[in-house]
Amino acid sequence: MVGLEDVAKLAQVSAATASRALSRPELVAETTRERVQEAARTLGYRPNVLARSLRQRGSRTLGLVVTDILNPFHATLAKAVQDVAEAQDYTVLMFNTDEESAKERRAFEILRGHLPRGLIVVPTPATHTNLDLLPGLPVIELDRASGRPGAHTVLVDNEVGAYRAVSYLAGLGHRYIGMIVGRQDISTAVERHEGYRRALQDAGLPYRPELVRPGNHREGDGRAAAHALLALAPGERPTALFVGNNEMTVGAVLAARDLGLRLPGDLSLVGFDDSRWAQTILPALTVVAQPAYELGALACRTLLSLLDGRVVPTSTRLNTTFIERDSAAPSASHAQKVGSA
Amino acid sequence: MVGLEDVAKLAQVSAATASRALSRPELVAETTRERVQEAARTLGYRPNVLARSLRQRGSRTLGLVVTDILNPFHATLAKAVQDVAEAQDYTVLMFNTDEESAKERRAFEILRGHLPRGLIVVPTPATHTNLDLLPGLPVIELDRASGRPGAHTVLVDNEVGAYRAVSYLAGLGHRYIGMIVGRQDISTAVERHEGYRRALQDAGLPYRPELVRPGNHREGDGRAAAHALLALAPGERPTALFVGNNEMTVGAVLAARDLGLRLPGDLSLVGFDDSRWAQTILPALTVVAQPAYELGALACRTLLSLLDGRVVPTSTRLNTTFIERDSAAPSASHAQKVGSA
DNA sequence: TTGAAAGCGCTAACAC
DNA sequence: GTGTTAGCGCTTTCAA
């Protein structure tokens, strides 16, 4: 292990000067500086981050806590955060919580011991409480908002995205539009639900509670919820479905297949969040796309700005994009009307 | 920041005793131990890992370096490694290299500063050289083998998996079986290529170099390679394709679509590595499935055993599973023969 | 502009 | 079984 002492010796200066030459070059005479840097290079010196962090009472480390790294949306967030952090010489400590409060607590505890400078978290309902473990730490909430007063958040405009999707379905003539919605203690799910509600209202359609089914964000939940909705009596069964996240959308498509329903002929479908799956499945899915990479990158940039003492907006919303593909079509009755006009 | 000193004071012992009571309880009298643990609990004490690691010259940290975290196969490996490491109280520092040597070097350099106890890496051709940065560090190579003598590897039986797939296609009567293969400086690609070769031989089919196209593991490469293969003159164009990894398989399916070829009627396809995409696309893809989670978990368990000084096998191969779904069918001529028999 | 010295929080020797 | 002491590798006073 080559240490600062070795570099100092080779460059014939004290350890203190060697340290300065490498970390704060402006404090050192040019010739000395070059001698030290040269020595460091030839020895292949790498600072011991542990010692440095211990001394400085804080490491150049950021925490990242996501709820499901196997979800491509989250994987993309993680990659973006890593890319930005790395460019600024920060190391990211990443943890996965599977939406479990206990795992999140553990992640926070471990993180604490590493003296991170900041944290980016996709919050769960338990996050508010668990953050007690990291008092005073700058935190950015990503994708969802926990509701903590004053929290910094980087989100997507869920309400508008959902509104756009449901308005589109209504415009296609659908009068029974179902929604598969996430847990109502998670902000994204609430907001998408709101958008759904408002779109129905603006389209002059009644809100029918029996057409709204909750699910726990996973594929299986989406499948079960879709089955429940499609089991309704003819006349009141939805002819179109708006699904609140990417995983549940997969489930909804599979449910349609289970029942032999063809998209978009027998059922129109619009999902929230784009993915390669949505792009390549047949028919290609009409979706509300989220700028996942940009979202993660922005969260990280915001955190780094915050750490630099710059003023940053407390809350940022990125726009979603509505992408019209082939999984939604005019309702049967609508097509008839238009055809006979 | 509550430190060990605070705990010691509250428990009325020295810092050393407090340290022992928490880290090596068997060295401390029971009553003292309880007093200290109680004090730690009430103060919410968490050890400063930095100080501990500095003192012990090594942190309870593992490095994990993968080449593409957005690839679900790699995401699964990563989750498995994390799960196992966490259960043993290790923290994982994860890096993504995008198959770029420069990024890998950087990852190794940063890692070095954190004094990890071991490293799990999905190697690239550059890894062999780059590992000079981490002399003496226990390393497990995951999924691929770099060829370093004596290296510990946890792999899948690529040759056998590929052999099985190609034999299956040959058994279906295909005589022109193309392969889209990965970079030949990566072990998995070489081995899968070998399996392809041997299967052809055992089926009495000639190896035709023009039916083998290399690709750089990405979707776009697979698509381009498939286009090239399918552009061959009738008579010598492949009627079946074996694709060497999951991303390129997506590309091959899209190429078939571009050309209006139907699977499996106009073209039979077998991919390497299963995925939700392969399961839910229509027709569902016949694939050689890899135990991704188990692979990652085993790599981590092996590393931890190694660190505990236990004897571990230098190389482990996990079996692949051939999953017959709907993307491969008897060749036209074969069907004819069988039909007329 | 540089060096000497102290100390970050913890654990391992060594004494008792 | 417990306390005292020293030191991990670095940065940062403070003094020169």
From TrEMBL, chains A, B:
**Which PROSITE patterns does the UniProt entry name for this protein?**
HTH_LACI_1, HTH_LACI_2
**PANTHER family recorded for this chain?**
HTH-TYPE TRANSCRIPTIONAL REPRESSOR PURR-RELATED, LACI-RELATED TRANSCRIPTIONAL REPRESSOR
Keywords per UniProt: DNA-binding, Repressor, Transcription, Transcription regulation
Q: InterPro entries annotated for this entry? A: HTH_LacI, LacI/GalR-like_sensor, Lambda_DNA-bd_dom_sf, Peripla_BP_I
What's the protein here called?
LacI family transcriptional regulator
Looking at the record, the residues that make up the HTH lacI-type domain are 2-56
Question: Which Pfam family, giving just one, matches this sequence?
Answer: Peripla_BP_3
